[in-house]
Amino acid sequence: MKRLLAVTLGVLTAIGGFVDIGDLVASSLVGARFGFSLVWVLLLGVVGICVYAEMAGRVAAVAGRPTFDLVRERLGPRAALVNLIGSLLVTALTLAAELAGVALAIELISSVTYLLWLPAVLLMVWLVIWRTRFETMERVFGLAGLALVVFVVAVVGLDPSWSGMLDRALHPEVPGGEGVPTYLYYGIALFASAMTPYEVFFFSSGGIEERWGRKDLAVARANVFVGFPLGGLLSLAIMAAAALLLHPAGVEVGNLSQVVLPVAVPLGKAGIALAILGMFAATFGAALETALSCGYTTAQYFGWRWGKAVAPRAASRFHVVVATALVAGTMLVLTGIDPVKVTEYSLVFAAVALPLTYLPILVVANDPEYMGRAVNGRLANTMGVLYLAVVLVAATAAVPLMIATKAGQ
Amino acid sequence: MNPQEDTGARDGGASNRRPGRAYSAHFHLLDRQVVDREGRPVCKVDDLELAHDEHGRPYVTALLAGPAALAPRLGGLSARWLAAVQRRMSVGGGGGPARIDFGRVTGIGPVLTVDLPEGAAGVHALEDWMRDEIVARLPGAGRASG
Fold this sequence. Notes:
The structure holds two protein chains of two kinds. By secondary structure, chain A is mainly alpha-helical.
């Protein structure tokens, strides 16, 4: 049991990357529109985030440095500031969407509009950050988010033709009626959300909050190799459920209530209840992850004291940044903006932040002055360089594709 | 550059440097995290104060920290903004960057360890103001959540 609980940081981090509000809707939308033809991108993203989260976790455990420390040290103050601004925009916009997502999950149960729930959600998220122990937080929301496993059960319950699914996933083709640029746009969006920078910020800072040392390298690795594939599996199940039921029916997924539809067919009310619980926990967890990440990155850029292990009054600037991000996010959602659109547009800023985040991690993970004997092996370096190239291509192509396809319309 | 004993390496972390090997100001000092004896973050090395010895060779006399030290290194619009914010937020005269004498540096590794007198750690005007005016007024601000 203790072993199981030790990997909840990885699980919570992955939930923020793979099944946050934007991805819940996007995975479902991609499944409904493109069937199984984008599954390979998801797998590409899972491997990519594993490669870099493993490096970031190892640097945190061995050298005791969180990711944004490395960004500032290796890129200098100017490029790091560009990264900070880009990352903060992605993270804060995602945070806004997650707050709306929590409120939308409550709306699904209560039928009271999500806008009325927002202030309560803001208060709840802030209270958890202010008062809850880091470990308690990651365990409660990491494990409750696993209620989304109901989508895996639903896919199995639908009794699909497994060989047919595998065949369509292995031989992807652009479905009729969809343009190639649209296909590529959704592919990049899926990949960028799997490798979104706040995952490594949160993961490495979380490792330091848990006081990882060199002896915890195995724990760090277990977190990576259990958490992220699990997040990917949940995302895949949501996509598959939509591909099996909504794709043939021609349903266009636009909101959260449609995401739960495929669960209702094989599992009924109990399935819906679990799916909504999972969505609540996953969006809440993602809100915590993004809110804390805003504080972590800013504090680590400027060298302030940060984290939940010190009393708030000893890390007041960190807590002010977190609270400001929460209030700003709530106000943005209260304008009535579509929260799913917000996460789509945050992709533009991710394009700036992704390469500037992963390059310093790769450089420091190779530096024996930080890492001693725990420097990257050949496999980590090969994968690291390959993925840096993929990230660069995706980052360069993201904005033109977004404009060309009018954000995937 | 002042050669310093590498005592700051974390337990089993960074490999010890060979004695006498030079440190690069750019690579080992600038933009590193500064921590106090207990490992609590103090600031970043935002800039270095240099002096010249009798042969005209430069050596580091102090670590400089805070927006006033960082702004000139950023250049462009961001530098002007940061400097403007810093001017408006600094209390009293001076307004120059915070300065940590290089003799207080006890270790150079992934972080710079400094030996600060008790009570002087991390005192920045902005931190003080935010603590006194905002954070300390909220219930539970004095206890760590862990």
